[in-house]
Amino acid sequence: MKRNQGFTLIELIIVIVILGILAVTAAPRFLNFASDARASALDGARGAMASAGSLVYGKAVIAGLQNGNACLAANGNVVAQTAGACAAGQVEVVDGFPAATIASVRNVAELDAAEWDVVLGTGADAPGFGATDTSVIISPAGVPVSADQADACHAVYQQSAGGGAKPVITVHANGC
Q: CA angle, 74 as apex, 73 and 78 as ends, to 5°?
């Protein structure tokens, strides 16, 4: 007669403990939800800025103000600047697209100050890999802006170069 052999209770418990240890150490590496969420939020902000820029450009073309400086009024119309500046509550428009200013980008793309940090970019010494003198850096609130591409978790809004050229919006999410 054959003797049925199975696993003992001790062997089953040891296997379950080993699988539990592996799950606790390996799962966070495979399931990095926070990083994915920040990267997706940056893509969403890029989409919001691109869509808003296209809408503003369409309004500027209708008003015949797609070249040079203008203002986006609270009623949604693009108007000529008065005295070389936009009035309070208006968004600065350069060559038909929102200017690379904190107020312009924040207002047009509706980036909430509690959720997004928006800072001006500068050329050589800037935090914000990919930033220039005519750019704005957008990052999730509380995430430091890095000058190193490997640590970067931000988007760069590069103002229109004129002549109907769209602004360049680049997402750097390697460090999210």
A: 25
Residue 50 to residues 4, 57, 153, 161, 169, Cα–Cα distance (Å): 69, 10, 18, 15, 7
Pairing relation of β-strands 78-80 and 116-120?
Answer: unpaired
The CA-atom distances, in angstroms, between 161 and each of 26, 75, 144 are 47, 26, 28
Q: Which residues pair with 78 in a beta bridge?
A: 72
Q: Which two tokens stand for residue 105?
A: 């980008």
Distance CA 130, CA 79 (A): 31
Half-sphere exposure of 170 (CA within 13 A, CB side): 16
Q: What pLDDT is attached to residue 131?
A: 62
Q: Please name the helix (run of DSSP H) or strand (run of DSSP E) that holds residue 116, with its range, or none.
A: strand 116-120
Q: Looking at the predicted structure, is the pLDDT value of residue 125 above 70?
A: no
pTM score above 0.85: no
DSSP letter at 82 equals: B
